[in-house]
Design goal:
Layout lengths: L4 H37 L2 H20 L5 H27 L1
Helix pairs in contact: 1-2, 1-3, 2-3
Length: 96
């Protein structure tokens, strides 16, 4: 437990920030899961929009410093890699 008044105030502020950060982090995870689910389902049009939304959410989280910018970049890269693999798989099946 905090001893001084300033330590108490800092604890309150830290808890407020933690709640905000938790909401942003949770939203980013949800958007990523929706994008991955759309990619694995094979719905390319829905997957594209879901990936765009996930990337936007990750960028916002990194901008607010909720997650590190390199973490956001890594997650975006992995999402795009999965999307591009699904797009190329679809295009090869359409050609055959």
């Amino acid at each position: 437990m905090p001893v001084s008044k300033t330590a108490e105030k800092e604890l309150r502020a830290a808890r407020r920030k933690q709640e905000r950060n938790k909401a942003v982090r949770s939203l980013a995870k949800t958007k990523i899961k929706k994008a991955v689910k759309a990619i694995t389902a094979g719905d390319v049009d829905m997957a594209k929009t879901a990936v765009i939304q996930a990337i936007s959410t990750l960028d916002r989280a990194a901008e607010k410093k909720v997650i590190h910018k390199n973490t956001a970049a890594r997650k975006k890269s992995r999402l795009m890699k999965k999307l591009n693999a699904a797009l190329s798989a679809k295009s090869t099946t359409e050609q055959n």
